[in-house]
Design goal:
Elements lengths: L1 H32 L6 H10 L2 E2 H8 L3 H13 L3 E5 L7 E5 L1 H21 L5 H19 L5 H8 L4
Antiparallel strand pairs: 1-3, 2-3
Helix pairs in contact: 2-5, 3-4
GO molecular function: DNA binding; DNA-binding transcription factor activity
Keywords: DNA-binding, Transcription, Transcription regulation
InterPro entries: ArsR-like_HTH, HTH_MarR-typ, WH-like_DNA-bd_sf, WH_DNA-bd_sf
Length: 160
């Protein structure tokens, strides 16, 4: 049992290390391009789909509307997106990439593709398929992780 606990701990440590290293590198790359990594999903979605409403962006990316509103405001301030009224419903605002936004989109997507080639260099196609299955399983398992206030309460009360 103790051996399994050590293995699990090492796997979690490796996952955390990989995640931290990945996000550190991505942050540096995207900063060099002129965007924040958190903006990539919206830029990617708009680059792929074209014009969307904030509600459609929120629903597509599973992001809360206020978070989308803040990101849209920042992207607009940076000159990467523009807003205009919907042709059919003036109450709806459509969001789309500007020419500068499309340039950033193409640059970021190229960088992401290059990153993937480097990340999985030396792996066979079947190993990549296994990774995909493992990552999907980890993602599903993460969704089941409890978020429980009793953990915080117990810790704060000195119970460990």
């Amino acid at each position: 049992m103790e051996e399994q606990d050590t293995l699990d701990n090492n796997l979690q440590r490796m996952l955390l290390r990989i995640s931290h290293l990945y996000f550190t590198k991505i942050y540096q790359q995207m900063d060099g391009i002129g965007i924040h990594p958190g903006q990539i999903p919206i830029i990617k979605l708009l680059g792929y789909k074209g014009e969307l409403s904030q509600k459609e962006i929120s629903q597509s990316l599973h992001i809360k509307p206020p978070t989308v509103a803040v990101s849209i405001k920042r992207l607009e301030k940076s000159g990467l997106i523009e807003r205009k009224p919907d042709a059919r419903d003036q109450r709806v605002t459509r969001v789309s990439l500007t020419e500068k936004g499309y340039h950033i989109y193409r640059t970021a997507m190229k960088q992401i593709q290059n990153n993937e080639k480097i990340l999985f260099q030396g792996f066979t196609e079947s190993e990549k398929c296994l990774f995909a299955r493992f990552f999907k399983q980890i993602e599903e398992n993460l969704e089941r992780l409890p978020v429980d206030d009793t953990i915080k309460t117990d810790f704060m009360c000195g119970k460990e």
